Amino acid sequence: MKPASVFAVCIVLAVALAACATSPLGRSQFVLIPAGDMAQIGQNSFDKLKQQQDIVRSGPQVTYVQCIADAITPRVETPSAEGQWETVVFRDDTANAFALPGGKIGVFTGMLDILDGQAELATIVAHEAAHVVSRHSAERVSQQFAASQALQLTQALVIGEQGSTSEKQLMGLLGLGVQVGVVLPYSRVHEQEADLLGLDIMAEAGFDPRAAIDVWERMQERPGARPPEWLSTHPHPASRIEELRDRMPKAMERYEQARSQGRRPDCRQR
Prior knowledge:
The chain is 63% helix and 8% strand. The chain has 270 residues and is α+β, with helices and mostly antiparallel strands. It is globular.
């Protein structure tokens, strides 16, 4: 290998070593983006969404969602760049909710229509908050950057030295391999981590964690075909239900302890 190529590889390896982090559940992570930068990205994205979407500014839906968020967020150990959590209800029939770096929570009114009671909505809010505390967005951005840079480096090394059509075709196949072999599996890991950490968070907030199983059982019963699990960025509901059941005894201990300490949220969609 040429000296320049060796130097480029060393640079990539040095960046990879410097970017090592650990998720709240103990998994090694590759994170290149500082928490402050991700918080700014989250803030900008949230501001743009608030300009584009119709916001529910008052009323029982806002009171209900805010009550649940106020119970959940104190139990979330956020990265140092997170500030005061902001929660917004968007008037949209889509069954969706999200949390962004920088402490931003969004719940669409369509999500309220399919969930039954405070603990079920707490399942979703805690799950999304778990993505934030686990820095999954920063990890995804870092992985995408590293994947694109690795492909460019490989192309420079292989095509630059060989230059054949077959080598270019190989790079095209390698691009597909990166997408299926790296990006999608990590996304499934993120979802699994958010399920388990979210279960802990909602239990510590005083919400019955058994509601999480009810939520995913309902999702499993919703109409519509699903892609094969190995090509999906989300675990199949049956898989996540099994993992949640395995973790449930510890979650119930957290729940009972929270209630004994007076954490008994009473959020109702009046």
